[in-house]
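Quick one, tokens below. Sequence please?
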């Protein structure tokens, strides 16, 4: 089946959905193309009724800095007023090379002039995206120097314009994923060194039709995943551009048309969700450079605003969101999920490791039962579950995240919920009836209580313990409740990894990661995995 025919089939797969988006969907950005020599941005502002339905789904309307500068004061004032009335934010795209010191300050000053104009005319720019900084600036000054200078520029702009959010955008595979992730981490670190937050967001323009990627088959996703993971682990909002990247290739086959442009973009979204099973933080719909489609109206076939409307209905629909997570199950895609035992259905004699690493858990002297609206396993006769030689399976010297669902039933008798190698213990402390995490390493011992409240018995609780090599954190039901400094390196040793020793209660599932997951991923795991509480027995 050809690409075009697959696109046609995909376009008809999904039924019509109401355009209003459910809570928690990613931000939807628009970068409209020009049509017949007229700016798409101008057309959208001048003809609001021609895209009323599509507009209700849009969060950010972006425009190139120099095209925005070409608007007269009256045009810009009208645009700012309408965006405010529509509750749509304004984004500004600028080539990072135009802001480089070697540009003699000319174009940098032009950016400052645009920002000042918007403020003078009663509006504001919410987002500034600096494009191709890694591709154009890094070769001039080297990775470290370019990251430092760019971070200094962003920190300076944040001081001048605290209401604005500054991010970066790059094309892939124009810059190799390995180089891009290292450079992004460097920029993020440099920003933090200025005393403020790290990088706010990063937008990736993935060239879906690049011959180098097509030759890799499904492996072409590995670079994209590495860049995504870099952003999420550093809590950088990740945006992905959906655009008509296949237009050039189709043109060589004399298949380029408005229809193929529209269908190819929808196909990219379906393909991405099929392989990734989650949404990015920002979805950016952009008119391709070779696309000459009309921008308006949304009711005509193959227009840009028709694409926006249908993308919202067919991709960002409630039905799709039920099956796709906003935040990634990080370990399943990056390899840092070491084990995943889920007890929502009767595991029988062995709990299979859903992480794919094959660390299956033999079950002896346990009972599986449903309590309330959730299921789990409970230990019988003081038994404990164990896997042998964790050193071979669980390399946790530098960082880890432990996540589990617990249903404590009786008062803790120094119950050891999770323990490995005497180096880490998650337990219920008798007398005080508190969750306690103990970390021992390099003759250093750290004790962390799980918040000020006592353990809630006969109630399901989501517990997460995170250690990044410097700080030990305790999370309860998706919220950080306590933390303590713990700078050390842990030697796992050769003792058994044990589960449930002396514990009177149920364990609903255990996941162990080889890295310190960021705050929003912990919270997202709680929100996502609590679903079995409402739908007992449903496989995640």
């Amino acid at each position: 089946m050809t690409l075009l025919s697959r696109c046609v089939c995909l376009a008809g797969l999904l039924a019509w959905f109401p355009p209003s988006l459910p809570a928690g969907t990613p931000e939807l950005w628009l970068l409209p193309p020009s049509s017949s020599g007229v700016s798409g941005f101008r057309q959208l502002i001048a003809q609001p009724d021609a895209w009323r339905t599509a507009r209700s789904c849009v969060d950010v309307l972006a425009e190139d800095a120099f095209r925005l500068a070409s608007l007269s004061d009256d045009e810009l004032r009208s645009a700012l007023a309408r965006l405010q009335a529509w509750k749509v934010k304004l984004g500004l795209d600028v080539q990072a090379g135009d802001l480089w010191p070697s540009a003699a300050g000319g174009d940098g000053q032009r950016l400052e002039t645009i920002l000042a104009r918007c403020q003078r005319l009663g509006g504001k720019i919410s987002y500034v995206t600096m494009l191709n900084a890694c591709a154009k600036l890094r070769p001039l000054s080297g990775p470290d120097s370019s990251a430092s200078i760019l971070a200094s520029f962003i920190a300076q702009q944040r001081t001048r314009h605290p209401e604005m959010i500054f991010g970066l955008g790059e094309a892939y595979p124009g810059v190799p994923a390995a180089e891009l992730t290292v450079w992004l981490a460097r920029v993020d670190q440099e920003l933090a060194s200025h005393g403020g937050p790290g990088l706010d967001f990063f937008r990736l323009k993935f060239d879906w039709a690049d011959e180098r990627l097509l030759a890799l088959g499904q492996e072409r996703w590995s670079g994209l995943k590495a860049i995504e993971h870099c952003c999420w682990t550093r809590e950088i909002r990740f945006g992905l551009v959906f655009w008509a990247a296949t237009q050039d290739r189709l043109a060589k086959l004399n298949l380029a048309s408005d229809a193929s442009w529209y269908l190819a973009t929808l196909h990219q979204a379906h393909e991405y969700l099929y392989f990734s099973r989650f949404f990015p933080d920002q979805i950016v719909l952009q008119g391709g450079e070779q696309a000459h489609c009309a921008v308006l109206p949304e009711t005509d076939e193959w227009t840009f605003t028709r694409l926006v409307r249908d993308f919202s209905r067919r991709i960002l629909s409630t039905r799709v969101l039920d099956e796709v997570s906003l935040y990634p199950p990080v370990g399943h895609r990056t390899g840092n999920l070491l084990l995943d035992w889920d007890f929502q259905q009767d595991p029988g004699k062995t709990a299979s490791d859903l992480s794919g690493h094959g660390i299956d858990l033999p079950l002896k002297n346990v009972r599986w039962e449903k309590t309330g609206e959730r299921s789990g396993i409970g230990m019988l006769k003081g038994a404990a579950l164990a896997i042998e030689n964790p050193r071979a399976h669980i390399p946790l010297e530098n960082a880890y995240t432990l996540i589990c669902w617990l249903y404590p039933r009786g008062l803790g008798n120094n119950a050891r919920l999770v323990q490995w190698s005497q180096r880490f213990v998650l337990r219920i402390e008798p007398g005080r009836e508190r969750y306690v995490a103990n970390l021992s390493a390099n003759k250093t011992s750290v004790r962390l209580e799980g918040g000020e409240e006592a353990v809630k018995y006969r109630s399901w609780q989501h517990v997460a313990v995170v250690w990044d090599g410097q700080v030990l954190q305790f999370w309860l039901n998706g919220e950080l409740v306590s933390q303590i400094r713990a700078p050390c390196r842990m030697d796992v040793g050769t003792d058994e990894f044990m589960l449930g020793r002396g514990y009177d209660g149920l364990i609903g599932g255990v996941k162990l990661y080889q890295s310190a997951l960021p705050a929003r991923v912990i919270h997202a795991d709680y929100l996502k995995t609590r679903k079995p509480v409402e739908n007992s027995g449903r496989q995640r």
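The chain has two domains: 23-328, 333-534. The two ends are 32 Å apart (CA to CA).
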